[in-house]
Amino acid sequence: MTLSLVRLVFAAGVVQALLRRYFPRMARLRLLTPQRQPELPTLFAELQRIEADLAYRTRFFAGLNTALAERNAERMAELAALRTAVDHLRNLVGSGNNGHAA
C-alpha cells in the first residue's frame, strides 16, 4: 500500500513538471489580476472604421483570421502535450501495479 502511494505521488510530481513544461502559458495565467478595460468610445470608433473602410476591413479580417489560426494551432499543440502527459501517467501507474492489489 505504501509503495503504491509513493508511486502515485511520484507520478503526480512528474505530471506537474510536464504540465509546467508543456503549458507555460497556463503557468503565467493570472486570473485574479485586474485588467484595464478599453474605453467604449475607442471600441465604437474602431467598429465604425471597420464598417466604413473596405481596405481597413479587409486588413482587419485578415489579421483576425491569422490570430484565430495561431490560437487554434497553439491549442492543438497543448492538447497533444496533454495527451502525451496522460499517456505517460497511464504508463507510470500501469507499470507500478506489478500484480499487487492496491
Task: Kindly describe this structure.
This protein is mainly α and 102 residues long. Helix content is 79%, strand content 0%. The chain is built from four helices and no strands. The chain has helices at 2-22, 24-28, 40-52, 54-95. α1 (2-22) runs antiparallel to α4 (54-95) and α3 packs across α4 (54-95). The radius of gyration is 23 Å and the shape is elongated.
The gyration radius over C-alpha positions equals 23 Å
Low-confidence segments: none
User: Kindly state the mean pLDDT as a whole number?
Assistant: 78
Strand elements, count: 0
Look at the helices and sheets and give the structural class. Answer: mainly alpha
Query: Gap between N and C termini, in Å?
Result: 6 Å
Query: Order of SSEs, N→C?
Result: HHHH
How many helical stretches? Answer: 4
Helical residue percent band: over 70%
Most strands sheet = none
Strand content: under 5%
What characteristic shape results from the CA principal axes?
elongated
Structure summary:
By secondary structure, the chain is mostly helical. It has helices spanning 2-22, 24-28, 40-52, 54-95.
What would the keywords be for this entry?
102 residues
Q: Secondary-structure blueprint of this entry?
A:
Layout: H1 2-22, H2 24-28, H3 40-52, H4 54-95
Helix pairs in contact: 1-4, 3-4
